[in-house]
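Section: Multi-chain targets

For targets with more than one molecule, the full set of components is provided together so that the structure can be written out for the assembly as a whole rather than chain by chain. Components appear in the order listed by the source. The example entry contains three components.
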Amino acid sequence: MIGWLCRRLMIMLMAFVGVFFLTFFLIHFLPGDAFLNEQSLPEASYNELRHHWQLDEPLSVQLSHYLGLIVQGDFGRSMVYPDWTISEIILNSLPISAFLGFCALCVAVLLGIGTALLATLWRHDLYLVITTCIVSMPVFLVGALFQYLFAIEWEWFPVARWGSWQQMVLPVMTLAIAPGAFMGRLLYVRLRAELKEPYARFVESKGLSDYAILFRHAFRNACSPVIAYLGPLTAQIATGSFVVEKIFAIPGLGQWFVLSVMSRDYPLIIAIALLYSLILMTCVLLSDLAALWINPRYRHALFRGVPT
Amino acid sequence: MPKFLFLLIAGICLVSCQQSSCPSAFMKPDHPAGLLRVSSESDPETVDPRKARNINTMTLLRMLYEGLVRAEPDGSIKPAIASSIDISADQTVYTFKLREAFWSNGEPVVADDFVYAWKTILSYGFAAPNAYQLYPLKGAQTAKEGTGFADAIGVFASNAKTLVIELEKPMPEFLQLLSTPIYFPVNSQWARDIDDETKFLNPLEVPYNGPFVLKNWNHQEELTAVKNSHYWDAENVKLQTVQWIMADNNTAMQLFSKDELDWTGSPLSTIPLDVLSALSKGCFETVPADGVFFLRVNTQNAPFDNVKVRQAFSLAVDRQSIVDYITQANQPPTAHLVPRSYGLNDSNNDLNYDPKRAVQMYQDGMAELELTKQGLPPITLCYSYNDRDHKIAQALQRQWKTVLGVDVTLPNCEMKMTLDNIRKGNYMLARGAWFADIHDPMNYLEVFKLKNNGTNNTGWENPKYVSLLNQASEAKDTDSRKKLLSQAEELLLEEAPIIPLFEGTFSYMKKPRVRDVFLSSLGYLDFKYAWIAQYVEVRK
Amino acid sequence: MKAVVGLILLAICFFLVCFGNLISPYSYDAIDLMARNEPPSWQHLFGTDDLGRDLFTRVAQGLRLSLFIGCVAAAIDCLIGVVWGASAALLGNRIDTLMMSCIDILAAIPYSILTIVLLVVMDPGIISVIAALVVSGWITMARLMRSHVLTLVSKEYVISARLVGAGFFRVLFRHVLPNSVEIITTTLLLTIPQAIFLESFLSFLGLGVPPPFASLGRMVQESLSALPYFPWRLLIPAAWISIAMLAFNLIGEQWYEKLECRNDSLT
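Its structure, encoded as tokens over all components, is:
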């Protein structure tokens, strides 16, 4: 087990490095740079700005310069906001986004699992209809509707911004509702299938109640897609957070995901890509660990080795 | 299915209880005195006046700093940090006597502050995007390009309170230029103690000499500035706190309608077009902007290398319907590059809309090029996606299809890619705009002077145009200068490397309690004289 | 019962998609600036949009585009994802690690970068839109498929098939895939709306279906600021996406249940 974990961490490190190089080359492939704007600059000023940021040097020089900075822990300054350091930008916005994302994750998981379990008990397929409707609404639509209905029309919650718990409700619910519905649906479908398996019918014939079957047996088996989905769920919440942060004026990291690429702020893009890959890979690792703990079949597959 | 219909109808009914009154009308009764809350679409880039570029940053800088002169609300330029101005007979030497003014850390404002700021901008290798605006100073351009010495720059402090500026050649609008943020001072005593890289990293500790100082700045969230007690004219500043709240345009509208903002709109953000469609004209205000929106035409590619085809496309555009129904903020349609407020060319044909003549010119042009409809290369109109340009582009696409029968495609272009394509000449038609730096028709006309100056990007250059502009800059009196510039503009419009659409306006919404916030046509918001009226009852 | 409702919904969508343009007197790109933002009425069944174009015709054309793009992108996503995920699970630990690391790297690169790269490399149009949707959409399917197949791998029939000497493809097609149907269909049916809305995100970036065509997702995204004033512009296209998704799902459920019954009767 420790061996497996160590190997896994080594591979994560290599993937991390892979992300860095790939991102670096891709962003320099994109046309345009941070200094090209609507109100164009005279040619000399533009070239001078590029020279100051070493954008006219060959890629290998820029890469080695940047690597040198990173190794010392300094990600440099933003190209668009020359007096903000990258570390400052990320350290200010990451806790907010992380908190928002974490709350949304918990709510999504609880909502999904909770509603799926309830729906399985009542065996009503209306649950499928509801989840389909929810999943077929995009995040920006849900956010706009929630903001309009709950904040503007009925005034139950504040319109936007971040700080008090009331301001947290709408953004978290907006982010959590679609992934929660997706997860609930996944779980519901798997549970329904598991309950038709021979072992479940056997246990039922022994006289155990529905609840017991559910929790002790079927759930553990049905959990695997849900847990595997935790990785993409993090990704979905991260991309969804861009929209939610825009709609509710939350100063989080999500906006930088897209804005940094659109404004070609190279140091910021690389820092965010590295950060995001760290978060994503950690989540995938955690979900794999959780799956190992819950589902013995998974354990068997991963550890006994699969004959080819 | 019935569930859906019900939800749909319920939804429509629910949201049909629309906000029929102006969002500006709703005000909560307990508004703190002296507090002004403004929305901004993005953060200012920096508090270093030497590196500023976009309009949000310049607006913040005008709150925090003050230069030698200040543009007053009535448009005149009055001395600010300078107490008196003395101009030499040949108009190349300006002598400023500075008044008793202080930085927010108690140190006095001295002439050296200006010298230090300007010389660092002009030092070779210092990344200041707007350094070119300092080129009227003698020796500035050579110093910046590295071929001259910093000592040769025409600015020095003859004593602590006297600043002398030497220009390359006489420039009547130099005082106007002096009021822009690139000419603001930086506290030299404070600056010399701190390493250049880290000076402005902590904006709360920077000394300011303007009406306000920065109290708090949470990136992407809000920025708070309070009245500067050390400001020389502090008794005329009536606001206590100015708060900028960063929010996107739709959210800003929602916040404004709930009275969590006092001001929203240009120049710091934009009012969504759907809001403009829904509200009556009296709910928002507009100020004419010193800027023009036009389409750049790439004169290097067929069929636009033929002047008749370019004019045909211009004649086929119904500008009036675009400004009436799409942009909806009282923009005057125009067929000129220079706004009509300059009085350069008072032609009556500002609409330039003549479908019949357009078809005729188009056919003539195509005949000259010997092209048929089949041989026409695909015509594209490039623009980066935003709501207004998207709608205008679709309207233009439809207009050209109905009038000329030409199919123009609108390839979706991402912003930087569009800008890069325009710069490299990889486009056929592109949406463009020019907003003046100073009130001068030359500022517009010299955009298209040379082919490769970085601002033209149409591949058009005309020697006669260049000579007219050169003569105008040498001209001795304003009348002959105006005549020369007028001829230049006529030549430009005949050759049509651009298709002008409309002049810009700034549209904004403010609560009735906000008074005396001034927005100039150059886009500068001035909060110095603003004040908040106290209302007793709430109008809903 | 479910199938009946599903079929009715699908028929309505089909009718709108095929005949919407024909029965409407307006063209989808006929701009009439004087008639903009009009609510639903007898002249304009669904109202007009911000440029005065008839929404009924636009929704019909948009539904066609959205469904086409969504279904094709989701189908390609699922194809790549299923093959990748199943292969990763079946081909042993080393290859599994390699394949999953590739996914981790691809998932970590900001999506906007990938789409702009595609925009540079390909001509704008429907193919590039589908490519942009596919480039990272298959990851979810791959991960889910891999974890599902890992649980199957320890099942009796797979182990016995391997002992007998069955090759990779035989194991894949005869044992793994039939037992993964519900996860594949569930994910497929839920990937389609995600693809539809990812396309509207693309149009925000600049890579979308070129105007005057517009997909439903784009129409929804462009009408967000109109919600308090002209709600039909937002709600009607959104409702139609939900109707189409519901139709697919109900039919898919019915089809799956039939499959299940057949499976049950076999065991």
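Residues 24 and 57 of chain C are 6 Å apart (CA to CA).
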